[in-house]
């Protein structure tokens, strides 16, 4: 227990650099959002949330996965200590924001998981990027990993409610529950397609206007 307390304290100190990495990424995303809106009269970002994983959550995950309880190595073993979630109006915006981030020289894309192209078996859709960005401290530069989840409003609606509902089940939920979740995910995907098509038509009409 005493060991846990000192581990949690060390973790707390270690997490500061992840807060800085999130702040840097938030600034980058806000700039992209405002600049794109001003040039193209369309903001590809609806809103952004972020979180640094709590020390207790990190400890629990390390234990659950049988990973070493080494505070200095947590950045090597966990990719989601810092998390940023970008909610976009349309699916095309998800890929647009991801491409704009990838073009920045100080943003290194370490891994991409495209759960939009290939949704998870339960229907979960989102684009996940593990990025690494430099954080300039008083005496050194740290290269810090951040998990960026990009999704549409419809994908976020589904994922938020699925998370709430699923939490009640320690094991797998009943089969009819699974089917219902999957079919709601398909409805959300159809909604995304229809809204995307309206968006495309409106922009084509605007481009044709003298
Ligand atoms: P929280 O509370 O959001 O942080 P990992 O388990 O992270 O080591 P994995 O499985 O490769 O590695 O990660 P993946 O698939 O990239 O998913 C990580 C995060 O994506 C999750 O974090 C969720 O935020 C989100 N996610 C993935 N699958 C689902 C899903 O089926 N439903 C919902 N609602 N969200 C999902 P955490 O840590 O699980 O949760």
Automatic annotation (TrEMBL):
<dbReference type="InterPro" id="IPR052366">
    <property type="entry name" value="GTP_Pyrophosphokinase"/>
</dbReference>
<dbReference type="InterPro" id="IPR043519">
    <property type="entry name" value="NT_sf"/>
</dbReference>
<dbReference type="InterPro" id="IPR007685">
    <property type="entry name" value="RelA_SpoT"/>
</dbReference>
<protein>
    <submittedName>
        <fullName>GTP pyrophosphokinase family protein</fullName>
    </submittedName>
</protein>
<dbReference type="Pfam" id="PF04607">
    <property type="entry name" value="RelA_SpoT"/>
</dbReference>
<feature type="domain" description="RelA/SpoT">
    <location>
        <begin position="50"/>
        <end position="173"/>
    </location>
</feature>
């Amino acid at each position: 227990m005493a060991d846990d307390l000192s581990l949690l304290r060390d973790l707390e100190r270690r997490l500061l650099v992840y807060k800085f990495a999130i702040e840097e990424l938030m600034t980058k995303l806000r700039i992209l959002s405002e600049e794109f809106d001003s040039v193209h009269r369309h903001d590809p970002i609806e809103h952004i949330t972020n979180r640094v994983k709590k020390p207790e959550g990190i400890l629990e995950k390390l234990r659950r996965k049988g990973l070493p309880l080494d505070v200095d190595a947590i950045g090597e073993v966990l990719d989601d200590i810092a998390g940023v979630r970008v909610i976009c109006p349309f699916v095309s915006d998800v890929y647009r924001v991801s491409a704009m981030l990838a073009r920045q020289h100080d943003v290194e894309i370490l891994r991409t998981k495209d759960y939009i192209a290939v949704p998870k078996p339960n229907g979960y859709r989102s684009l996940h990027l593990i990025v690494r960005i430099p954080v300039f401290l008083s005496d050194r530069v740290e290269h810090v990993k951040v998990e960026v989840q990009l999704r549409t409003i419809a994908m976020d609606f589904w994922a938020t409610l699925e998370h709430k509902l699923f939490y009640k089940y320690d094991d797998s939920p009943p089969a009819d529950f699974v089917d219902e979740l999957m079919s709601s995910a398909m409805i959300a995907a159809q909604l995304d397609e229809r809204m995307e098509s309206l968006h495309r038509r409106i922009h084509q009409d605007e481009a044709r206007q003298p």
